[in-house]
Specification:
The complex is a heterodimer. Chain A is mainly β. Helix content of chain A is about 0%, strand content about 50%. Chain A is globular. By secondary structure, chain B is mainly beta. Chain B has strands spanning about 5, 10-15, 20-25, 30-35, 45-50, 55-60, 60-65, 70-75, 85-90, 100, 105-110. In chain B, about 35% of the residues are buried. The chains are: A mainly beta, B mainly beta.
């Protein structure tokens, strides 16, 4: 099992550009989430999904879109990149079965917007 | 919205000393989770606590969930250099999938 795979690992964007951060998991997990991590701010929830076709907003959703067409994939789209979106982005998944809610995180995407 | 406060923000110890980080939620939690993130790495799930007053141990790590299910702690006995990293608590207000993370405690260990 590869676990949670995020691509790319690093990305530099110009202000106004759009891009999609990819996230895939091979553990058949129902729950998936996107977090951003900024110095001194901890991990903040951007969007989450409780299953294919179901998504909802987290704490900091503005400027980001998500979709969940399959159980495996949960891409995060930046619509028009801004310097404030410079951050490390983590995708995570959880089975949610049998009371086990712990999340498995991907290795992250380091995004710089110039 | 739900807030999870974690203290201290930083802790530097000598190898062999004990370490404790505390987590407090503004609301009652259905469960609390603890994660460790090594420098430059990603968060790794350590444990989940669900029951009021629950105590769980993993070797030198002891996790507690408060009676009111609003606070938790992680205690490391006799720290080692391999314990270096940031420890996060993450609270769940009842959804079981929408976690709110504390800002973490960065632990450094002097050998």
């Amino acid at each position: 099992n590869a676990g949670v795979t995020q691509t790319p690992k690093f990305q530099v964007l110009k202000t106004g550009q759009s891009m999609t951060l990819q996230c895939a998991q091979d553990m058949n997990h129902e729950y998936m989430s996107w977090y951003r991590q900024d110095p001194g701010m901890g991990l903040r929830l951007i969007h989450y999904s409780v299953g294919a076709g179901i998504t909802d907003q987290g704490e900091v959703p503005n400027g980001y879109n998500v979709s969940r067409s399959t159980t495996e994939d949960f891409p995060l789209r930046l619509l028009s990149a801004a310097p404030s979106q410079t951050s490390v982005y983590f995708c995570a998944s959880s089975t949610g079965l049998l009371g086990n809610y712990g999340y498995t995180f991907g290795s992250g995407t380091r995004l710089t917007v110039v | 919205g739900q807030q999870v406060m974690q203290i201290p923000q930083y802790q530097h110890v000598q190898e062999g000393e004990d370490f404790t980080t505390y987590c407090n939620s503004s609301t009652t939690l259905s469960n609390i989770q603890w994660y460790k993130q090594r420098p430059g790495g990603h968060p790794v799930f350590l444990i989940q606590l669900v029951k009021s007053g629950e105590v769980k141990k993993q070797k030198r790590l002891t996790f507690q969930f408060g009676e009111a299910k609003k606070n938790s702690s992680l205690h490391i006995t006799a720290t080692q250099t391999t314990d270096v990293g940031t420890y996060f608590c993450a609270g769940d207000g009842g959804s079981n999938y929408k976690l709110t993370f504390g800002k973490g405690t960065l632990l450094t260990v002097n050998p």
